[in-house]
Every structure is written in structure tokens, then in C-alpha cells.
Design goal:
Shape: rod-shaped
Number of helices: 8
Structural class: alpha/beta
Number of strands: 9
Strand order of the largest sheet: 1-4-5
Order of helices and strands: HEEEHEHEHEEHHHHEE
Helix content: 40-55%
Radius of gyration: 33 Å
Amino acid sequence: DAGLALIEQERPDCVLLDYSLPGQSGFSVLRRIHAIDAYLPVIILTGQGDEALAVQAMKSGAQNYLLKSSLHPATLQRAVVSAIEHASLEREIAEQRQQIYEQKLALAETSRLTSAVLDSAPCLICVTDATGKVLVFNKELERAVGYSAHEVVGKHTPLLWSPQAPILKRAEAAARRNAGVAAGEIPVDGPGAPGSYPAPRVR
């Protein structure tokens, strides 16, 4: 317990842990160490050359497993340096994953708020990229032309707004249903687009 308190207070770069401890195994202490710092490198030292024990040590989160009988200063130094480097890389990867997760949450919230604002706007909104692909198609525009955003987003405006496109027939029907709604002009973007076609107006 005194050793664990020292680890929590000092946060060492690496811990050398004896497998055989009075009243408990090194694995139980290893779990308590990682409860303090999940990425603190721990090297298990043992006098038993048991392969099953070595496998269990690695599965339990130890960075390495060394036999006391074959321990030399150079071997120990290499093991400590390697354990620190490996644990540092694991910590960095975990932090990057957490940052990516938080960024995805922030983007999802921004997208949700943007969609809510666009869908509540009392005007027709169609946003395209430089090639004319539809990126945004708001609720008011859906009601005006009779197409859902699901059907339109991702398609290119020249294919949607050309005189031959079936959307115009549906738009006419939607305009008749929505008496009093004037759709106005719907711009067409992108290379080869025929300019703009008037969306149907209610007569």
C-alpha cells in the first residue's frame, strides 16, 4: 500500500514489480497500479521461468517479464527504455482517439444545429458545391418542389433542374397543393449548368 501511495504521488516513468509479494501476487498489484495510471509501464520480475506465467503477465498489462536469474544492468536498461517508449506510444494513441471522438461529437452537434436552423428558415435554401452537387436542401424547399432532401442531396443540379427532369412535374403538383407559396428562382451551379430554371408558381 505504501508503494502504491508513492506511485500515485510521484508518478514514476516505470515500475519494476516482483511477482512474489507477501500475501498477494504481483498481478493483483499490477491491476491496482493501472487503476492509478492505465499507461504506466510495469515490468514483472520473477525467479520462476514459467512460460505460462510470462503470457499471463503480458495479458495482465505488463510491458515486459524478466527472470531475476538472467538479469543484467544492460538487459534491465533496454527493458526499461523499451517499456517507457511503448507505454508512451500507447498513451499518445489513446489521447488521439479521444480527441477524434470528441471532434466527431462536436461536428455532429454542429451539423444538428445547422440542420435545425436551415429547416426552420421560412425561405427556400439549396446549397451546392463547385460541381453543382446538392449539399443542402431544406424543408421549405421540399414542400415547395415535392422532392425530399434524401432524394436530392448528393445529386447534381443540372440533372435535377433541366426541363426534362421529372422533378418539375412533381414541383408543379406540389405548388398546386401548397396554394399561396411562390417558389421563386432556383439557381443552378456547376459546369455545363443551363443557368436557372423558374420553379413553378401558384396561379
